[in-house]
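Exercise 7b. Backbone tokens:
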């Protein structure tokens, strides 16, 4: 990313399965892996959804240089309300 002055657009933790698979395969949660890979260091990176994050992941994002974080208020597939952090079903 640094060589090309670019970022990454990625859907992050849209479903809890994303976290489960990441921990099972890599021993880390999704945002921790992105941080280790340097994705959060690019102001041009775009993180989308970010529904199933823990406090550590939120802190990593808050302290990062990412360009934009878009979190949908409610997704019809998960029923997760990101403004309150609660299941609306």
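Sequence design result:
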């Amino acid at each position: 990313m640094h060589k090309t002055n670019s970022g990454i657009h990625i859907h992050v933790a849209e479903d809890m399965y994303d976290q489960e698979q990441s921990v099972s395969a890599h021993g880390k949660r999704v945002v921790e892996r992105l941080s280790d890979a340097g994705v959060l260091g690019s102001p041009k990176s775009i993180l989308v959804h970010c529904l199933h994050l823990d406090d550590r992941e939120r802190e990593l994002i808050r302290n990062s240089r990412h360009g934009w974080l878009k979190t949908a208020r409610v997704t019809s597939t998960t029923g997760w309300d990101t403004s309150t952090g609660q299941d609306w079903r």
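Instructor comment: The two ends are 40 Å apart (CA to CA). The longest strand covers residues 9-12.
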